[in-house]
Structure formats: C-alpha cells, structure tokens
Amino acid sequence: MNASEVSANVHDHGKVIDRQKNRVQCNYCAKMMSGFSRLRYHLGCVKGDVAPCGEVPENVKALIKTKLLELKRGSLGKEVGNLEFPDLPWKRKLYPSPSVIEHRKHQTTQKSGPDCKKDVQKDRLSANGVTKDVPLPTGRNGSQEVVDHNEREDSSSRQTKKCIGRFFYELGADLSVVMSPSFQRMLTATVGCGQIGYKLPSCQDLKGWILKEEVKEMQQYVKDVRNSWASTGCSILLDGWMDEKGRNLINVLVDCPKGTIYIRSYDLSASIADVDVLQFIIEEIIEEVGIENVVQIIAYSISDCMEAAGQRLTEKFRTVFWTVSASHCIELMLEKIGMMDPTRGILDKAKTITKFIHSHATVLKLMRNHTSAYNLVKPSKIKWAKPFLTLENILSEKDNLQNMFVSAGWNSLIWSSREEGKRVAALVVDPAFWTGAGMVLKATIPLVRVLNWINGGDKSQMGYIYDTMDQAKEAIAKEFKHKKSQYMPFWEVIDKIWNKHLYSPLHSTGYYLNPHFFYSSDFHCDAEVASGMLCCIVRMVPDLHVQDLIGLQLDHYLLAEGAFAQGSAFDQRTNIPPVLWWSRYGQQHPEFQRFATRILSQTCDGASRYELKKSLAEKLLMKGRNPIEQQRLSDLTFLHYNLHLQSFNSRLNTDIVLEEIDPMDEWIVEEANQILSQNDDSAWMDLDCEAATINEDLVHGKGPSGIQPKVETWVLTF
After folding, report:
1. Angle CA 389–395–400, to nearest 5
2. Which contacts of 539-547 are long-range, i.e. CB under 8 A and separated by 24 or more positions?
3. What is the pLDDT of residue 419?
4. What is the 3-state secondary structure (H, E, C) of 14-33?
5. What's this model's pTM, rounded to 2 decimal places?
6. Is there a contact between 441 and 392 (Cβ–Cβ < 8 Å)?
7. CA of 85: how far to CAs of 93, 177, 370, in Å?
C-alpha cells in the first residue's frame, strides 16, 4: 500500500477510549494518550510530549508527518500574517529590520521565567510607515495549540455537516439538493457575512460517513426505547395504503411512552386477501418485539382479512389484544352519519355555498370583507371531519353571510343576476337550511371533538377513551333534549362501530384503573367494565399465583387503603396522568402496579396520526436495485421515519385542522369550471393582499360592525 492509499485523517488510526477524559488509543501499538493531537505526533514519530510509535507502518508515518509539517507551516503563516505589500521580495518579507530585532530581544528579556515558552508574543513591524500586529510563535507548544485549534475546528465542522445531514434525513429530501447553488446561497445568507471557510457537506458525505454516524446514533435511541418495553409494554401499530402502482403496502411501528419507532415495511400486493400471509407477517413482528412485551395490536382497517387475522392472532397469543385505530373508527362513525339522508342533503347544500364562493374571486373577496377574512372551508387531515368543521364554520358566520347576500356589494356583482348566484343567495337566507345545519352539528361535533382530543399531544389515552366516548354520546343526547327518536339513530351508528371494531377490554379496564374516574362520585362499574377488568387479569397474567396477588391488592385499591389512602395520593388523583399516579402510589402493590402500568401506558390511536411520508417505503419496496444501494436506501428509510417520529413525539399538540386548503378540494372546486371574466382575473391578483389588509385592520380594532365572535356549539371536557 503506498502513501496515497492511506487515510490522512488521524481519527482513522486511533479510537476514543474515554470521551470525558479525552483519552485515545493508537491502533498500531495500543498506547494510550490525551487527544488526537498527541496521537498525530505519536504516529508521525515527531519528538515532543509523546513517545514515537514503533509499530506504525512507514507509509502511514510518512503521510502523517507530512501533514503535520504542513499544518505547522500553515499555522506559522497564519501567525505571521500578511504584510501590506505582497509584491515585496521574499527576503524583505521574511526578515524584520534590525530595529525590530532589537525591540524583540527587549521583549524576550522581559518575558523570562518558566512559562515564557507558552506565550505568543506580538510585535509591531514598521514598513514605509505602516505598522501591523504579527503573532510570533515561541516553540513547540505554540504549534501544539494551533493543532488543537484545528482539531476543534474539524470537530465543529463535522457537527455542522451532521446537522445539515439530519435536516435532509428528517425531511426525506433528495440528497443531491445539497449541490444546488440556491441551497448553498441560502445557507450562506443564513450563516451571515464574514464566515470564511464554511464548507457544506458533499452529496457523498451525506450518503457516507454522515449517514453512518446518524444511523448509529438512531440505533442507540431505538435500543433505549426497546429497553423500556419490559416495564411499560408496547403496542404494535399497522399502517397500510395503496400506492400509485396499485401495490398494497404496510408500515409497522411500535409505540410506548418512551417513544414510537419504525420497524419495517412490507409489500402485500401478491397476497392482500391472504389471511395466512398477514398472520405470518404480524407473528414475525410479535416475535421480534417479544411476546412478553406486546399488549395490543392496532389495525388500520376493518376489512374481513384484517379482522380474520386479528381473531387468529388473539387466539394464538392470549396475552395480546386486537383493536382498530380509534381515529379510523370515529371517522367511520362520521362517514356513516354523513351518508344518512337528512345529513347528506345539508352537506350538499353547504358544499354548494362554498364551491360558489371559492370559485369566483370577486365573491370570495366580498365574503372575506364581511367575515373578517374567514375561509368557509375548514381543511382537516381527517377526511370526514372536514365537512362538519366546515358546516360549523358556516353556521358561525350565518349573520355575516346573510348580510353579504343582501348588501350593495353583492348586488353590484354580475353573479347576483345570474341563476347560480340567485340560487346560492336564496339558500343562504333559507331558515330550513340553517335549522338542518344545527341538527347535523348536534350529532357530529361531539365526535369531532373526540377526534381532536385523540390527535392531541398526549398519547396515553387508555385511561380516558372509554369515558370520553360515553361523554360524546351523552352530549349528543343532551343536544337533542334527550328525545330518543332524534338521538337514537346516531347512537346506533356509534354503538355498532364501537362494539364491533373499536372496543377492547383494555378500554374499560383503563377506565377502572384511572383514579380520576374510579374515585369520583359518578363512577359506574357496569357489566362491561367488570368483565373487561376480569378478562385483562386472566389474559395478561398467566401466572395463577400473581392473579391471586392482584386480586388481594385490588381490594386495597377499591377501599383506598394503605398508600392509596395517603393525602398526596388523594390530591393527585385528578392532577397527574394515571400511569404516573400508579408509579408513585402503587409501590406497596408491585403486581397490581405493573398490571396497571402496562395497560395505562398504551395508546388508542393507530399509525396514521404520525403522517409518515409514504414515498420512501414505496421506493424501498421496489425490486431490481443494487444490494449496496438497497442497504443505503434501507438506512435512509429507517433514519427518516424514526427522526420524524422522534420529532412528532416532542410536539405538545397536534390539531386535526390544517392551515392550507387543497386547491383541488371538492368543497371549493366546481365539477365544471367556468371561464373567469376579466374582472375576476384582476380580482384574483389582489385577493391575498386584500385579505392581509383585513387581518391587519382587525388587529387594530377595525373591521365591519356586523362581525360576530365564533361560538362553539359543544365543548367536550376531560
């Protein structure tokens, strides 16, 4: 091997033994020393504060020594600095005048003492009346400081490059973007002026050492999460979809209080309706996670194949429960209600209003002038929440919309004289439409509020979901003044999906184990709650002796005895999460505490809440790729998904309402787009600017006097 084939990076010839004490070890003689700077002298066999290496290969020694001398020369050049006249002869540059030498000697005599070698002295060089400060090196230790400084610069540069790499990996962006001149200009502008020598990572860096180090760090994070499963248990989350090629794909995640992690992706296209294949895949995941750690599996679909696989798995693994994502089930409830005849008619009328307003710039501008720039459509990441959020928004703007369609501004528009405009204007002033809209919202907004709560920041919903669904049903009954003939059709839709797909004994047991509810005056232990509690004890605790212990300890919880009777335990029943309450006050009952912790630590929602970018998994599951490139893509997918999940878990709140409306949304796009008039074209140009002006006026207390504050029709409290 010649010198050109040897790495000049000193980090490749030694390894860190103790980061805190900065101890490194030579790869050739195993000698320990302080820092890579000393290792560089050791390998180059340059005499100094460390003994030369006797085992280093000659080509390595020659290369390291050459690099070390280059560093010294470079640092010396930096210390001496540049003179004002670069065209002077070399001799003039190198040697100061005799008067300067005398002055330097005078300084040297003043700097006598044992520490004089550690000082970097400065002198004033005079040339044609121009003076400059020039640092003068004072020996080997001065050069050592320069090497250490370069070492720190290298470390800082590597960390900066890793941060840029993490940005790309988390975003799931094309790594070649780093070579884009626009991207480089953006970072240069962000870093600011005066930053010299700033170097971006190359595309090869992002695919190479940066990716390798980031994957290694993420593997450690995943390992830490896995280590928590033994105490809290975990939930396997399935996330399936069909891509543009018609393939049926699945991502598998594992969730616990410590964090949610990505496991792997599968292509089920060849066996989408094959229960045996689906069962085999999930069994493979259960074995990898550990059957002793898995509490439940949360599916993304209510298909017959999925339901059959769930039934087989729970029969084979008695300690594991099967349910469907709570968000998906509640969305199904909203969909069923939305398809009921009276509800569907009201939603169609509301859609007629929004399509008309959003399809014509002049009308939209007029609407924003009358409604403080409100958008009537409320986009949501949950498809069947959007119609009811939009209808709620329309109802809250009832007076403003009615005023708009009888205003002089409306009558001045060409649309007021056209059949389409007249039809919408008549609809807005029709009392029957508003009465029907109110009835629809009475049945649906409680469910939308539950959806919003599920998608909020707290994932450990197991102690609350059972009571929350009861609250939603009671709220619907209350809105209809407890008239059975009016609210029962909606209850039947909710109960059918709850009983068949969503409900799990874990839900009612979580309700029982939540001290917030258990010790309240309105706690109700019906047959479903009691049987759910018994089912969980029998299935999750196979050891009969432990079952008996839990039965005895349950009596203490029931009677609030021992640690459960402490004043702090009483005070904290409603102030802290139930799983934290059990960790503090259940220590005298370890078997019951572990049982409660494993149940209350679980989520009720599925993988869809994380909104993972599907394109990486789709690309990963394509065949015909080089094995090396396939492994790199696998690392990128693993890193991207887990960085995204890590970031998602740190968010305090996640609303189901989106900020931006999809321009192709069915609530704003007419089936047959009409050609805009010339007036409309010009109106579109100023529309956003006009909206911004309206918002600014509202901040300063201006705006139309007819604006009414938005009133929630129903609020769910927890």
Report:
1. 125
2. 539/318, 539/319, 539/321, 539/505, 540/295, 540/319, 540/595, 540/598, 540/599, 541/591, 541/595, 542/318, 542/319, 546/591
3. 94
4. EEEEECCCCEEEECCCCCEE
5. 0.73
6. yes
7. 9, 42, 71
